[in-house]
Amino acid sequence: MKPSFSFRPPQLDEIVKIADFQFACWQAAYVDILSDSFLSGMSRDHRRGQWRHRLVSGERKIMAAWADDDVAGVVSWTDGDLASVRELKTLYVGASYQRSGLGRELLHLAVRDEPARLWVFEANIGAQIFYARHGFTATGDSNFDAETHANELLFAR
Question: Which of 63, 83, 92, 122 is buried most deeply by CB count within 10 Å?
């Protein structure tokens, strides 16, 4: 049976749930992508502050998928540097909901079928395959992320 989700932006009093969800996703998904020292040095409080700022400032649009009261997935985006191109900033799906179609639903909520772009870790082959299935291709542009000390690739459609 396919899980049932409700989709809505998080409220300010739910932002800790969103931040802790992203923290857990990073710890699980990036264990072979980011350094142990980076992952062990991550701060929940720092992530909570980042997400609180994103919500309060409106710098990102945020949508969460909820399974009852639990966060099942989260997506965030901006209009990007180019007004006509949305930039996907965050897309995470909880481990127990992966391969359920939730990632596809969140992606569509954020960027629909419109032109969009996103940065993905060069070593995150699974994410690159996911985005390629949804019409994204690597542009050839890359970036060294100073915070994570990892290379990123720009994907666009």
Answer: 92
Whether 12 is covered by a domain: the verdict is yes
Q: Which residue range forms the structural domain that includes residue 134?
A: 6-156
Find all residues with CB under 8 Å of 146, minimum gap 6, and list them.
Answer: none
Number of domains in the chain: 1
Q: What is the pLDDT of residues 126-147, one digit of tens each?
A: 999 999 999 999 999 999 999 9
Q: Is 1 within a domain?
A: no
* CATH number for position 10: 3.40.630.30
Q: Is 121 left (phi over 0), alpha (psi -120 to 50) or beta?
A: beta
Instruction: Determine the Cα–Cα distance for residues 136 and 155; give it in Å rounded to an integer.
Output: 6
Residues belonging to the chain? 157
pLDDT tens string 87-137: 999 999 999 999 999 999 999 999 998 999 999 999 999 999 999 999 999
By the 8 A CB rule, do 119 and 131 touch?
no
Contact between 20 and 36 (Cβ < 8 Å): no
- d(CA 19, CA 97) in angstroms, rounded, equals 18
Question: What is the rounded average pLDDT for all residues in the chain?
Answer: 95
Residue 49 lies in a domain: yes
